[in-house]
Every structure is written in C-alpha cells, then in structure tokens.
Description:
Strands 3, 4, 5, 6, 7, 14 and 15 form a 7-stranded mixed sheet that branches. The chain starts with a strand and ends with a strand. With 345 residues, it is of the alpha/beta class. It is 28% helix and 23% strand. Residues 25-135 form the Alcohol dehydrogenase-like N-terminal domain.
Amino acid sequence: MKALVYHGAGKKRWEEKAPPQLVEPTDAIVRIVKTTICGTDLHILKGDVPTVGQGRTLGHEGIGIVESIGESVRNIKVGDKVIISCITVCGSCSYCKRQLYAHCKDGGWILGHKIDGTQAEKVRIPHADNSLHRLPGGVDEEAALMLSDILPTGLEIGVINGRVQPGQTIALIGAGPVGLSALLASQFYSPAHIIMIDTDDNRLSVARQFGANTVINPTKQNVVEIINKLTDGIGVDVAIECVGIPATFKICQDIIAAGGFIANVGVHGKSVDLHLESLWIKNITITTGLVNTSSTPMLLKSVQSGKIAPEKLVTHHYPLSEIEAAYEVFGNAAQEKALKIVLSA
Length: 345
C-alpha cells in the first residue's frame, strides 16, 4: 500500500509500505476513504514533536471502511463505514474510567504519533470498539471527517473548558480550523457576543460567515482598545487561545475579565510568559488539554439533525495520492486561503 511517511524534520514521502496487520484481538483494519491534514502534522514536520520517530505514517483523522477485525471486537463489523477517532480508547484503565481518554494508558493520541496513522490507504486501529464510530447512512462524509479531531477539540478544550455560558462575551484568538470549530461549537451555548481575532482578513471574513459578531485584525487594530470599548472596560468572560504562540497567549491575558476563563487549545512549541503580576488578583482560571473525543457521539447526532454543519470548514480537495501537494497548500494556508483539506482515496 501507499502511505505518507515521516523521515525526520522537514522530510516526508508518499511511498510504498507494508499494509497493516491485526496485532491484538481488539484491533481493526480500516481502508481509508477520506482523510485530512492537521496543524499537529505540521508541528511534527517542524520537529516540535520529537516522540514521533522516522518511518512513522502520519495522520490521525479519517473516514474508512472496516476490512477486518480481531476476534474480540464486538460492536464494529466488517463493511462498516466508520469515523476514526484521533484518540484511541482502551475503556478500562484508570484514566478511561475518568473519561480522560486523551491519557489512556494503552492509547490516547497514538495514531500518527506512536503508531502508524491515517494518511495511508489502510490503517490499524487498536481498541476498535471504543475508537471507531459507525457512520449512519446519509451523513455527509466531509462533515463526519471533521468529527475525528477538530470539532471535538474546539468544543471540549475550548468551549467546555472555557465554561462558555449564555449571555457572555467571548473571544477566540486564531481563526484557523480549530478556532473556527470552537466558534461553531460555542453557539451551542448562546454567548451574547463572539469576537474573533486573527491576522488573516480572509479567515476573519469566514469567521463572520460562521457567526462572529466582531472581528479584529491585531496588525491593523488595537485589540485591547476595541474590546474595552465593547465591554465597558471589563474585558471578555472567556478567551480561547487557538494558535499556540506567545503573542496570542498574551492577548488572552490582556483581554480577560476578572473571574474569566482562558482556555488554551493551541499547541505550543515555545514557552510563554504568564503575567501573574497582573493576573494574581483577577480570579481567573487557565485550562489546558488534549481532546478526549467524549463529545463525538453528541456531535454526530448534531450533524445528523442539521444543528451544525462542519463541512463548511472544507476549502480544498485532493486525491490521496496527491497528499504531498496538499501539504504544500496547507503549509501556506494564508496565501492559499486553506482551512481543511479533504483527501479522498
């Protein structure tokens, strides 16, 4: 089979690789129908995730058809079309019993990280009963693909961790795919005013279409002045950081109201400054996290009912065989006006 293989920082290649085999009785082998590229994949290629070894197949999102299952798999059948969760869940360890699936002792984020991932023609999924979600007929495959990672991430690590509530003023810093996912998910909780902050005017325009009330470009506008004017000098109730750089984390600290929540979603490759000299008195809460994907069944029902349409995040389409070209587009997202890229087998 063909797979996108990591060969060290800055090096990747679409090449022949031995197809995956069942290893454990709880495994399934899934033939990929659709997959996509995540910002985390770019972090790996930059060398920011040294735990990814050379020879690893990248990718942790996908829609596929189950081709074979281990003898202990009960809920998933050969021929099922499934959503592949970015988080592998054993279901029985101490973390899983607390629904901290991201930290599963025999799973968590392992696809495209510690084991071969989904940017391939086939993939092995450990703990298949807990790590695959059967896709009902009639559900748009591209919408479902967004449930592998980014929509649960935006909801769980941004919106839920940030305790978004009706009537609040919230700010999202970063209008990339995860930031826009958090924007879509935040509307489940009816905030009164949604502010999107980004340096890309095209992405700010998309954010307006997705429901943002105010958009701010910090290269052209003074973020603090505008938010102070909007909030009578109080600041925002929730700031959701969706980039992962020092400048965006500082914006969160500059605009948060007393008693507010800063929910960090972005993947940080460098340390940031925490200004406790000004924050210690403000009674704020800072949260971090890796998605657990516990919200995926609820989000799937919301997609089925038409309450949310995450396929709107898709901007580009490529055959899976052209994944290297797709990476070039995704790596230059601002110039290419790219959000999520769907790769179809």
